[in-house]
Each structure stands twice: as structure tokens, then as C-alpha cells.
User: What shape does this take?
Amino acid sequence: MKHIVVLTGAGISAESGLKTFRDSDGLWEGYNIQDVATPEAWEWNPALVQDFYNMRRKSVLEAKPNSAHCALAQLEEKFKVTIITQNIDDLHERGGSTNVVHLHGIITRSQSSKNPNLTYPINGWELKMGELCELGSQLRAHVVWFGEAVPMIDEAASICTTADLFILVGSSLAVYPAAGLINYVPRNVPKYIIDPKIPYLPSDHFIKIEEKATLGVPLLTNELLNE
Ligand code: APR
Assistant: This one.
């Protein structure tokens, strides 16, 4: 069975109403990364960081998977599919995908501030100050902050080496090590990119679908399912 590897970024969730980071009204326009998404920010003002992720968790819970998430899940009818996502929402899972690797964590879980391997489900949208892990440390969102290690990167890289077909959806490829994953996909493997504003690509071996995800992804998945 052919193995399709999909790398997704914030763009695939844009039409579900979740802001991207670097588009014109992007998340990083309203916030300073240093204030809300770094270990230093957590040291300096944990309540502000907690609040930032509580707000984002609220919008994730209110959002619904869109036709791009669902179309990728449908690929599982005919192919082995691995979704590697930079997104911390759970829309791929809610869209039906069963094999999702979250490079930057997932906002619906919390983690110990002492031991990142200790993670817990969060019921509802709010993680409160004073909620402690089993070691007694303050619980934080289970997301990878800038300057922190990306524990899943090696697994993600080796998954990319086993792709028979690669699809990149909705990422500006601005953030490493995630952006470097495309270099692990063998040269002879067909590569597609779906994005209304195709970002700079180190190699021109990509088949470009210059469309938004809810248009471009179903177009491609229907083709693959009916070939
Ligand atoms: N459909 C498809 N792609 C879209 C859509 C859409 N409707 N709308 C925007 N895009 C594209 C943009 O053109 C851009 O290429 O999605 C991409 C969004 O890029 P970013 O905002 O940089 O998001 P992403 O690449 O996921 O950022 C990577 O940076 O801030 C960190 O941890 C954060 O995981 C994030 C990482």
C-alpha cells in the first residue's frame, strides 16, 4: 500500500476560523512571541502565557474540521497516510485522520512544567493557575515553545524518508526544524504543495496547487482516490 505523508501548517485550519501566524491578520501580529510562546515568558509571567493558550484552546474547541481535514482522512480508504502537523489544534483527528504526529504539541493536553513527558488531558477550555502535575509543578499547555526541543522531529524525519507521495498544505516553511522535513523526502517521490500564496521552496520539484486548502486538497485527494 502506498504511503502518503502530509505536512500541514496553520493554513489548513484557516478556513475553520483559526488564525494563521504570519498572514496579514495573523496571530503574531497581535502578540509578541517573546511574551507568550517562550520558556522565558513562562518564567516571567506564567498567567499571561496560560491565558494566551486558554484563549486559543477556546477557539480550537469552537472550530470544526473543514473539507481539507476530512479529505485527507478519506485518503486512508486507499493509502497508508501519516499526517505530520505543526498545528496544535486537533482538527485532523476530529476530521477523521487516525495517524497524526504533532510536531509542536497539542493544545487539548497539558504538561508538567518539570517533566515534559508527563502530559494530561484538559477537560474544557481552561487550564487554571494552581492546577498541578503529579510532581507538584504548575500545569502548562502541551505545546513546544520557541527555544524548546521538538521531541518528534527525528520520528517525523524518518517518516518523510518512507513517503511514496508527499503533500505540503498551508505552511510558510518559516520555522525550523519543521521546514527542513521536506529535505528528507526522497527526490524521486511526487511532491505537491497546496497554498494560495506558494512560499519559497528550496527545490522546484513541487507540483503547485495555488488554491486555498478547502479547494485544493479535495481536488488532489479525489484524483488520488480515483487514479
Ligand atoms: N489554505 C491553505 N493555506 C493557507 C490558507 C488557506 N485557506 N490561508 C493561508 N494559508 C497559508 C499561507 O499562505 C502560509 O503559507 O498558510 C501558511 C501559514 O503560514 P504560517 O502562518 O507561518 O503558519 P505555519 O507555517 O504553520 O507556522 C509554523 O510557526 O509560529 C510557529 O509554532 C508556530 O506551528 C507554527 C509554525
Observations:
- The chain has a mean pLDDT of 97.
